Amino acid sequence: MCPQTDFDKPFGLSDNSQVQVELPGDRGYPIHIGAGLIDRAAEMIRDKLGERRCLVVTDTTVQRFYGQRVQEQLTQAGLVRDDILVMPTGEQTKNFSYLSFVLDNLFMKNIDRKTVLVALGGGVIGDLTGFVAAIALRGLDFVQIPTTLLSQVDSAVGGKTGINSPRGKNLVGAFHQPRLVIIDVDTLKTLPAREVKAGYAEIVKYGLLGNASFFRWLETNGPQITAGKAAKQEIQVQAIRTSCAMKAHYVAQDERDNAQRALLNLGHTFAHAFETLSNYDGSLLHGEAVAIGLVKAFQLSHRLGFCPEADVARVQAHIKAMGLPTSIQGRGWPLEALISTMFNDKKVMDGELTFILVKGIGEAFIESKIPTEHVRAVLEMP
Ligand code: NAD
Ligand code: GLY
After folding, report:
1. Contact predicate 248/12, CB 8 Å
2. Residue of the nearest CA to atom 3 in ligand 2?
3. How far is CA 74 from the centre of its chain?
4. Got the DSSP string for 244-281?
5. Which residues pair with 29 in a beta bridge?
């Protein structure tokens, strides 16, 4: 049970820790959130999907911590025939070569249309596995067991799946919803501190885009979420639950990202360009790029006259206090390369740069035709 707070009410949360993504037909699904859930994964999958062959996709690190535990349960429950694919860790795995590698292996293992893929890992594994599920045999069911904070609050929910192109982030993909999401906060105990902080940036994003009282709560409780083994699990569950409920709310309104769902991309036009320029080499994690992108979105909104300076300062102060980067100074990325990368963003319409801007904390909106000189100016700001 979780207490209901003023910041949960607008998003339809009651006092239990399950969130439902409300979509038509069989595209709706539950998100279970709590401690110890990974040891009940097989039972939850069988309850939801019946006795089906499951094939787990994971990465080498997650395999070391959790692969065997999940595999054994699935085997005991009769849901798996010794099937696990272990990918290299890191963003580079979200590419055409590994897409082809996974597909090839699935066909060698004689999967059929009733096979369920289980994505066990962070956003890289979730996005890649989800995309494979979308296209193999014209569509397989899949389950998300996200094990990073970032994937628990964002990528495992909403059905955006895909891989990167050498021309930019997430340019190849499909909408394909999971049938079930199982979030176990115990997995955060093994996650490196830098990854936990990166995931926290996506939690802050929800407060900033549409929930000022959640942001206020985070200003006090943020450190309890990212404190590693000393973190307070009930605070983590609360933050994840609110984040998932907000994501579910926008996804239910606009599943295919034609309107309001774009608000979830606050900071991301900047972030995707930073990641592309960093060449996905591990020097800048997705969540770190988002942290800088959030500050840039607030600075741009202020520069264009939409947002008070005090809100920019508050956002910058919180992100910095949480140990996340707030500017690109010292990275050495040419401004023109960043701008031209932004023109490859999926939000560019009719050749015009479109950004998610804010009128203040918790009040995001979509604005197109942003002149590039303003974007250039905020990129140079500290
Ligand atoms: P990730 O999947 O690369 O995981 C980060 C690292 O943590 C990896 O090295 C992984 O092996 C390790 N790891 C995972 N779980 C662990 C655990 N419990 N203990 C120890 N180590 C663990 O990165 P991520 O931050 O989870 O995801 C980033 C990706 O998500 C990006 O590709 C981004 O584009 C994508 N994303 C997608 C969406 C979406 O809607 N589909 C939304 C946001 C981000
Ligand atoms: N991560 C943004 C979205 O899912 O729409």
Report:
1. no
2. 264
3. 26
4. HHHHHHHHHH-TTSSSGGGGGGTTHHHHHHHHHHHTTS
5. 21
Mean pLDDT by 10 residues, the chain (382 residues): 63 71 96 96 96 96 97 90 90 95 96 97 98 98 98 98 87 97 97 98 98 97 94 96 97 95 96 91 94 98 98 98 97 94 75 90 94 95 94
Distance 283 CA to ligand 1 centre (A): 14
Give the pLDDT of residue 229: 87
**pLDDT at position 9, please?**
64
Mutate to test the pocket of ligand 1, among 65, 86, 127, 154 (most ligand atoms within 8 A of CB): 127
Of the candidates 315, 309, 339, the one whose C-alpha atom is nearest the C-alpha of residue 327 is: 315
For residue 255 and ligand 1, the question of a CB distance below 6 A is answered with no
Amino acid at 251: V
Ligand 2 atom closest to the Cα of residue 158 is 4
The reported pLDDT for the residue numbered 130 is 98
Q: What is the pLDDT of residue 351?
A: 74
C-alpha 369 to ligand 1 mean position (Å): 32
Q: How far is the CA of 371 from the centre of ligand 1 (A)?
A: 33
Kindly give the distance from the C-alpha atom of residue 199 to the centroid of ligand 1, in angstroms, as a whole number.
9
Q: For residue 41, which amino acid is it?
A: A
Give yes or no for residue 125 CB within 6 A of ligand 1: yes
* Residue 22 near residue 126 (C-beta atoms within 8 A): no
* Per-residue confidence (pLDDT) for residue 120, from 0 to 100: 98
pLDDT the model gives residue 3: 57
Cβ proximity of 353 and 375 under 8 Å = yes
CB 228 within 8 A of CB 137: no
- Is the beta carbon of 286 within 6 A of some atom in ligand 1? yes
Cβ of 121 less than 6 Å from ligand 1: yes
How many C-beta atoms surround the C-beta of residue 154 within 10 A? 27
Nearby residues of 129 by Cβ (< 8 Å), 6 or more positions away = 57, 102, 117, 118, 119, 142, 161
The neighbouring-strand residues paired with 366 are 356
Q: How far is the CA of 244 from the centre of ligand 2 (A)?
A: 11
